[in-house]
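Batch job 17 of 40 flagged for manual review because the log was empty.
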Amino acid sequence: MRTVAVIGFDGALASAITGIIDLFRLAGVTWARINNETPSPQFATRLLTRDGVPCRCINGLTIQADGAWNELATGAEPDDLVVIPTIGGPIEAVLASNGELIEWLGRFRAVGSGQVRVASNCTGAFMLAEAGLLEGRVATTHWGFSQQFRQRFPQVDLQPDRLVTVDGHIACAGGGMAWWDLGVHLVERYAGAQVARELAKAFVLDVGRTSQAPYSALQARRYHSDAAILKLQDWLDAHFDIPLNLEVLATVAGLTERSLIRRFKAATGDTPNAYLQVLRIEIARQQLEGSRLPIDEITRRVGYEDVSSFTRLFRRHTGLSPGAYRARFGR
């Protein structure tokens, strides 16, 4: 039986701790009970904290620990898994107060990449990155903190639209409640697809989610201090629906095309043309959420003529067709 060590710390999100523990502890159990079969537990779990003391979560709940994280060997049990839950409190403050934990996590940089050994949920990725585990790796975090993450850890290949990433022995999940996506994903990796499917059915989980793009906001790409790029973003807000090219955008920004590409990417994480696509998708999302305009009319309003091409683009960015997006998020 594999052991999952969930790391507790003050300011963590309680549901990200208790929820993922529930998933691992009940994999192979709840479905069997539903079907009057003999339970077959697949995982043991331990909540580990500094010195084994209780952790006080951001919602005020205090959770008892099963032991101390510094007692956990990093190489003796290759099948064991360490999970960092969501940082629920102010990220900078939580990182600053957990220097010993971050130093301890740094020991996992050298672990072989045959199986996932370390995972984070949501803003827990900040801890992994602070410990140096994500340097040069693909990772994800909550979309709303993506720009803060990029500014602090530019060496990480952050992909905030993705809900779950796996790179070598490290897995990350996106938004705060993505612990269930992470948990089911890891159950499948360790215990097999059948156990994961049964777990998802027993917990009534929608495991088809692959992207957090439907929930993300364009505003996250404005968390920077490059005045020329901010000026261009303001201009694009008013001219998103007309044909544009790099020469026009460079002129508006007062930059050469080469400087524009470099500075725009550094500030927003996107190329100018990719950002314009995202902006148009964002405007379309607002129209789908707040109006009853036909989809072909919304398509024209955001600068596209062909509805089928726009639908493919919209699906690529949000994971949903325009009609499905309206059905889920429309007022």
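Reviewer: the log was empty due to a logging misconfiguration, but the result itself is present. The longest helix spans residues 272-290. Unflagging and moving on to job 18.
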